[in-house]
Amino acid sequence: MSAASLRRAARESVAGLPRAFWWLWTSTLVNRLGAFVATFMTLYLTLDRGYSASFAGLVVALHGLGGVVSSLVAGVMTDRLGRRPTLLAAQASTAFSVALLGFMEHPAAIAAVALLVGMTSNASRPAVAAMMADIVRPEDRVRAFALNYWAINLGFAVSATAAGLIAEYSYLAGFLGEAALTLACAVLVYVKLPESRPEGGGAGASGASGASGAASGRTGAGTEIGLGTVLRDGRFMGVVGLSFLISLVFTQGSVGLPVAMGSAGFSPGDYGLVIAVNGLLIVVLQIPVTGFIEHRDPQKLLVVSALLAGYGFALTAFAGPLWAYALTVCVWTLAEIVNSPTQMSLVVRLSPVHGRGRYQGVYTMSWAVAALVAPLMAGFMIDRWGAGRLWAATGVLGTVAAAGYWLLMRNLPDGDRGTDPAAAGVAAGPKAAEALPCAPDTAEPLPAPGPHPVPNPVPAPAPVRAG
């Protein structure tokens, strides 16, 4: 491919997205550049503080439990208080709790603050996803979520390297550095991102109807959207269940794979080289692959990605030399590149406009629960039956998920739910209408968020990479 073709492909991958999206994208990148705690928590507790591996595992599990709890709470806050206030509260409290964790000495205090960090750091995810759905046109969402996922992995790749160097100097500097970058994200959100929630969605609505909407979570059409509504939505909860299965598979890259490689005689450095292939491929391939899949049938994409994920991990049972492990990582990384933006766009497509926060909260919870279950699953199966059974189980999970996607997406209506202004009272607030829909390279306003004709429609908005 020529340099001119590469430049043209790069321009096409970023063209037409609102200016507000790029500020949100920037906040994601900055936030992931400071991801120190999630990367080095276990090493910090065992090497620097001298605690046992069991205690480190407990603390990591509590961190994950905090994410489970906050997913639902943050989803409700996103709909009732708004996207921007939820983001500000989540990022400011994350900065405080991460800094506090660096000074904790007593084991009980460390465990308690780790739970708090898990709650606060996970609380921004429903708001980010809901805001992205609000400000990006339906036909651009797969591309937008792919770019956001690319930022997550680019930031993680840089932060993992930098955090290793920082840890050799001072673990406390790592905690304070993450706190500072997270606080910078909060400032960026406050200065650059206006509220994007559609009118009538809660506290942002005017008059008595707005107050009533804030209290009850009703849409403009009077249909109540609470957590019960989400849990009774059969098709959506089916997607949440499938997301949980896929999450169990992908999480084995960080829990089952290192244990299996260690049992096979490989060193931590060997595992580091193999798993680095995952981040490198995502950074290199996410944007061009998204350009290829953007307007293709989402049902087929999700079915194929589920099979690639399941059998990519299943191939690990036959890996011998280091290059063979790296080859299996290539297979399931391709599945991750396809699955993440496609599944996230499907979640938005199935979410009523005024319930996006709650729907995103429940969806985020599927990944948080998987982060708790996957280590237990890997440890139990490897100890009892060996790693081969674990990899066979991932193949089964991938097959079940593929069948589930095929069944759930049959006869799926085109377009988003609840985007008909006459039916749902959807209208971007005046402030959002002014400030949000502008392309980064032009002053021409883009169409306001809402339904637009989509040729060969794609669903609307996965491990987010968990974290």
Structural class: mainly alpha
Shape: globular
Q: Which ranges are low-confidence, i.e. pLDDT below 50, for 5 or more consecutive residues?
A: 203-222, 419-467
DSSP E strands, number = 0
Mean of all residue-level pLDDT scores: 77
Helix and strand element order:
HHHHHHHHHHHHHHHHHHHH
Question: β content, as a range?
Answer: under 5%
Number of helices: 20
Let me know the largest β-sheet: none
Span between N and C termini? Answer: 35 Å
Helical fraction equals: over 70%
Rg value: 21 Å
Give me a quick take on this structure.
The protein is built from 20 helices and no strands.
How would you describe this protein?
This protein is mainly alpha-helical. Helix content is 73%, strand content 0%. The protein contains 20 helices and no strands. It has helices at 3-14, 19-33, 37-48, 53-80, 83-101, 107-122, 124-135, 141-169, 171-192, 207-216, 227-231, 234-251, 256-263, 268-293, 298-314, 322-349, 356-385, 387-408, 421-424, 430-435. Helix 4 (53-80) runs parallel beside helix 6 (107-122), helix 8 (141-169) packs antiparallel against helix 9 (171-192) and helix 12 packs antiparallel against helix 16 (322-349). The longest helix is centred in the C-terminal third of the chain and has 30 residues, at 356-385. The protein is globular. The two termini are 35 Å apart.
